[in-house]
Amino acid sequence: MKTGSHGLKILQESLRERLLNEETVVLACSSLRKQCREILRGSDLDYKQESYSSCKVKIVYWNLEGKADVIAARLQKRASKGERFMPLTLLQSQIELLQADDCEMIFKLSVVLSLEAYS
């Protein structure tokens, strides 16, 4: 298993237990790779790979879109204010890891627009 898979398996088991109890759950994690999201969907024992619409586990994916230099500037600004956030050194690897499948429920947010632009 690759790094992080063990944690995803724990989340998968927890989600499965809650699905069986018919509970509603909201989970936030990065899951940049499609394989990671498939592990989470695997919480649904009836799930068939890539049959998103019939899966009981609904993954809503928020993708921040923007140029790396704009995102880097924002990360630096947050770091200078002492805010805890992803280190700038991880930015390029996060961009490279991102696998966005248009068949999945993906909401794209531009990093150059203000939050008010989406309301």
UniProtKB/TrEMBL annotation:
Catalysed reaction equations from the record: D-gluconate + ATP = 6-phospho-D-gluconate + ADP + H(+)
Entry GO CC: cytoplasm
EC identifiers of the protein: 2.7.1.12
Keyword Nucleus: no
Keywords from the named record: ATP-binding, Kinase, Nucleotide-binding, Transferase
Alphabetized GO MF terms: ATP binding; gluconokinase activity
EC class name: transferase
Domain of life: Eukaryota
UniProt protein name: gluconokinase
Organism: Brassica carinata (Ethiopian mustard)
Lineage, broadest ranks: Eukaryota, Viridiplantae, Streptophyta, Embryophyta, Tracheophyta
